[in-house]
Design a protein that fits this description.
CATH class of the largest domain: Alpha Beta
Number of strands: 12
Strand content: 5-15%
Shape: globular
Number of helices: 15
Strand order of the largest sheet: 1-2-6-5-4-3-7-8-9
Structural class: alpha/beta
Radius of gyration: 20 Å
CATH architecture of the largest domain: 3-Layer(aba) Sandwich
Helix content: 40-55%
CATH topology of the largest domain: Rossmann fold
């Protein structure tokens, strides 16, 4: 309980603290020590700050328990490994729905809040096809393209994740309350903000880094020159994720932001297959059917060879041993985890699971 309290207290500090706290957490510093260091560096004139933060953290945890909201701190095995790789991951995620959905490979679909019928149709179709291929669709529950993507993912009981710019018990916009309930059945509604936090303009640009951070790729549909979707695309590029864009009508001016992404090298998307191909999933689906964990020849998978049973390793360690970038390493780790060849430990670490026989 103390560990959880300290993580929640960390999350209540200003967001500019999270770059430093993430570095210390990756270095295996306990949350209590990280919090103490930050308070000593920046709040020396406020000796009551620690007690105030703990009191607010306790109240947030109580509210979450009363509302059926899961609390997933950085140290919890369910914390998404993909998020631990971004520069300033949230110390805590608040989740309604199925926490286990956070571990599945995902693609983000974002776009205009005032999407044209064309954009909404494309978003819905892409989401339906991506979930049929086994991917999770991540978006922001906003009007327009976001909500169309969530609805498309739900068409055939697919899994989708909504990232909010408010507490998970304060659905915004309010007309999407029923949609949020549908998402929770097999997916998740999540936020870095404590329960009860109302929406605020400054929260939405920050939540975009979580949308891209959870995903292996970000697909932009109908974004203007000043669209918030371009913030998500920029976050994705900074995080080493793939950025793709859907072309649109050149006469309307509604898609100049997405077209600018295409001019800068984003992959063009005409169907879900373009996304799957970029992720290497089309090639994988045409494989020979041999054991992926062993390469089909009795040899240990090179990533498994970098891991030791019973000794968790973080992404930086695995990347250094394997020679792979974290962007390329994450999909393989997800695949091996689904196969049961590796298991997840807290703080974004993995260990090898050696099974008898």
């Amino acid at each position: 309980m103390t560990d959880l309290l300290e993580f929640v207290a960390l999350s209540l500090l200003p967001s500019w603290c999270w770059l430093r706290s993430a570095d210390w957490l990756r270095a295996k510093e306990p949350a209590a020590r990280v919090l103490a260091r930050l308070l000593a560096d920046h709040w020396t004139d406020d000796p009551k700050q620690h007690a105030t933060l703990r009191s607010r953290a306790e109240a947030a945890i109580r509210r979450a328990a009363a509302g059926g909201i899961a609390v997933v701190p950085w140290s919890h095995p369910a914390y998404p490994v993909a998020l631990t790789t971004i520069a300033d991951p949230p110390p805590v995620l608040w989740v309604r729905g199925r926490v286990e959905s956070l571990a599945l490979p995902a693609v983000a679909i974002v776009g205009s809040r005032a999407g044209s019928p064309y954009a909404l149709s494309v978003a819905e179709r892409l989401a339906t096809d991506l979930t049929a291929a086994g991917l999770v669709v991540v978006s922001g529950l906003a009007r327009g393209v976001d909500s169309a993507a969530h609805r498309g993912a739900l068409v055939d009981a697919g899994t989708t994740i909504a990232v909010l710019g408010s507490g998970v018990d304060v659905i915004y916009p309010s007309e999407h309350t029923a949609l949020a309930r549908d998402i929770e059945k097999d997916g998740a509604v999540l936020s870095e903000l404590v329960p009860g936090t109302p929406p605020h303009a400054g929260f939405f640009p920050r939540r975009n880094r979580i949308i891209s951070g959870l995903a292996r790729a970000v697909v932009v549909i109908e974004a203007g020159e000043k669209s918030g979707s371009l913030i998500t695309a920029r976050c994705a590029l900074e995080q080493g994720r793939d950025v793709l864009a859907v072309p649109g009508n050149v006469l309307s001016g509604r898609n100049r932001g997405a077209h600018a992404l295409l001019r800068d090298g984003a992959k063009i998307v005409e169907s879900a297959n373009d996304i799957l191909e970029e992720l290497g999933m089309l090639v994988a689906s045409r494989g020979s059917g041999g054991s992926r964990g062993s390469g089909g020849s009795g040899q240990l998978d090179p990533i498994l060879a970098c891991l030791t049973p019973g000794e968790p390793s973080d992404l930086d360690e695995i990347a250094e041993r394997s020679g792979l970038s974290t962007a390329r390493l994450l999909p393989r780790l997800f695949e091996l985890e689904l196969q049961g060849a590796i298991a997840r430990a807290g703080g974004g670490r993995f260990l090898r699971v050696d099974r008898p026989g």
